[in-house]
Amino acid sequence: MDNISLKEHLLQLEEELLKPDVRTSPEELSKRLADDFFEFGSSGNIFFKQDCLGEGGIGVRNMTLHDFEIHPLSENVVLTTYRLFDETKMVHTLRSSIWKRVNDLWQMFFHQGTPSSCTHISKEDTNYDG
C-alpha cells in the first residue's frame, strides 16, 4: 500500500471511530482497537481497551476531524496526527494515534487527545527536524 492510499485508509479508520454506530458498538470498537490499546484522554484520564467496550461504548458526540497527516514509523506502524473539533463540548483538541498492522489489519494501539486553542495546523507545524 503506498503512502497516499495508506493515508486515505487510516483517515477512514479514524473517521469511523467518530461515528455513533461504531462508538457505541463493543464489536466494532473491538475490531479497531488492538488488544493492548490505551489512551491518554483529553480529560487527563487513562483508558484501556476494556474501558471502551462497556455499555454505551465510548459515547456519542458530534466531532469533525481536520488537518490529518500520517507519519510512518515502520512498515507496520504509523503515527497519525490531526485536529478535532468537538461540536458537542465546543472544544478543540490535538490528536495523535499509533496504528499497528496486526494480521494484515490496521488497529489502533495508542491514542492521545490534548486540549488546544489552536484552530489550524499546517503540515509544516508537525514536521520535527531536530
From TrEMBL:
| Residue span(s) of domain DUF4440 | 10-108
Q: Which InterPro entries does the annotation name? A: DUF4440, NTF2-like_dom_sf
Q: Specify the species.
A: Paenibacillus uliginis N3/975
Query: What name appears for this protein in its UniProt entry?
Result: DUF4440 domain-containing protein
